[in-house]
Amino acid sequence: MSMKLPFFKTKQIDDHKEHKDIENIPNHVAIIMDGNGRWAKKRSLPRIAGHKEGVNAVMKVVRAASNYNVKVLTLYAFSTENWKRPKSEIDFLMKLPKEFLHIYLPELMEKNVRIETIGDFDALPAHTKKAVQYAKDKTKNNDGLLLNFALNYGSRYEIMQAVKQIMTDIDCSKITLDSLDEKAFSNYLYTEGLSDPDLLIRTSGEQRLSNFLLWQLAYTEFWFTDVLWPDFSEDVFVEALHEYQQRKRRYGGI
Ligand code: IPE
Ligand code: IPE
Ligand code: MG
What we know:
By secondary structure, this protein is of the alpha/beta class. It is 41% helix and 15% strand. One 3-methylbut-3-enyl trihydrogen diphosphate (IPE) binds next to β4. Homodimer.
């Protein structure tokens, strides 16, 4: 598969024109979409204005990922720690999936995108679950990009749940301790069946994982940008892909 990158606006990418061919596209890209609040603050707007604008950035990256033949896009939308925020902000965030789907589900269908989630889905408000479940059902037979929202997701919780389930399964002889290896363990995580992310992007200049995919990111390439999430664009995504293409992944080898 060889595709041409359309255009480059940044100097860094202009300097690497010989790499225009898009081979070595990451199979799975994960993004920590951060900086909505700061985007709004810079404009003297309430934080929720940043979240609202962030929804459009989600669609921009979905289009780009789909265009470049990325197979899985995992987007960190709400963490288990985000419940610490003011109720009014949480209420707003919990309405966003419905708003996003109301506007974009037809286009997602047209682009053959399948929607899934990772995280503690049951603990979400009923109206959020309803909107997201509808989209999951509607898109379940699509075989294009897998758009995977991390919603009420926390990696430590995920790992702890896996351990508990494994102990239960050992107790009732469903599995044996000896048969438990890394692959078998992975299948107890929300990301069961998915390959690990190849590329992790975090926006807004923060350089931490914030409890995101701790197990799955063991050998992932990280890319950080100061761009605030609502300003994320296809160009920034292409810049990240391009940087990924320059990386040498050694997995401990030489
Ligand atoms: C990311 O933006 C969205 C969520 C975490 C839900 P933030 O709301 O964290 O924005 P900042 O980090 O305060 O700027
Ligand atoms: C991480 O961003 C969670 C999401 C993007 C959903 P936060 O803004 O919550 O992370 P911290 O608090 O800065 O680590
Ligand atoms: Mg933040």
